Amino acid sequence: MYAQPLPIKDFGELALKCGPNVAPVTLASIAQTESGFNPFLIHDNNTKKAFNLGTDVEAAETATSLIAAGHSVDLGIMQINSHNLPALGLKVQDAFDPCVSIGAASIILSDAYVGGENHEAQQQALRVTISQYNTGDTQRGFTNGYVGKVEASARKVVPALDVGMGQSDIPAAPQPQQVAAPVDPNAPPAWDVWGSFEYSTASETEKKAENPRASDAALFVQATNSSAIFPQLRKE
Q: Which of 23, 17, 175, 21 is CA-nearest to residue 107?
């Protein structure tokens, strides 16, 4: 028995509730890349084998056995690494709760994201953050292709990531700065990634007709300076 992927609408609603510091589209792009929205997925970094379990109980039992054998495993919908669970205050079974997993990912992303003075700098900072989420390093997520994979997921699932900038090349490290994205009261609900994409596309067409350098929809709703519970996700 295999678990079904979490519907995108359900993921979007959980993202708003459980990871409010990060835009749902950002979390969805990463979740699509990491797990295909599968809440009970396990990836064994030692054997490179994936386990798609049917329930959270089965997933927790399998993960516990692998960890006891000394394996490094990535867990759940956001693929939180087993080495990071103590620092995040989580138990193995917690990692298979989609809300908890999204919340942990939100903390990691928010702590790593440094913002920027303009749209281009913010997009560079976002890609550096995505690299850190995968590798704990500001550059290795570019060289191993992970950032490009998240960009591809954004194109297919939640195309709010500005994928036309060609930022997959390793950017210079941006300077820390808090940045908040503007809120459009006419936009569809944040969980509605399909409606958001259509609305964003129409809005950006109008904006760019008036101002060719208008910014695309920001992926981070808010960048916080919260106390670092685990600033860099260790995936190896």
A: 21
Predicted pLDDT at 129: 96
What is the phi/psi pair of residue 44, to 5°? -90, 110
* Residue type at 64 in one-letter notation: T
Its sign, for the CA torsion 89, 92, 98, 104, is positive
Listed by start position, the domains of the chain span 1-236
CATH 1.10.530 fits 1-236, yes or no: yes
Task: Mark the ranges of the chain whose per-residue pLDDT is less than 50.
Answer: 158-161, 178-180, 191, 193-194, 197-198, 201-202, 205, 208-236
Burial class (CB in 10 A: 0-12, 13-18, 19+), 81: buried
Residue with tokens 């990463």: 30
Residue % of the chain over a pLDDT of 90:
57
Q: Is the pTM of this model over 0.90?
A: no
Task: Answer for the pair 52, 38: CB distance below 8 angstroms, yes or no.
Answer: yes
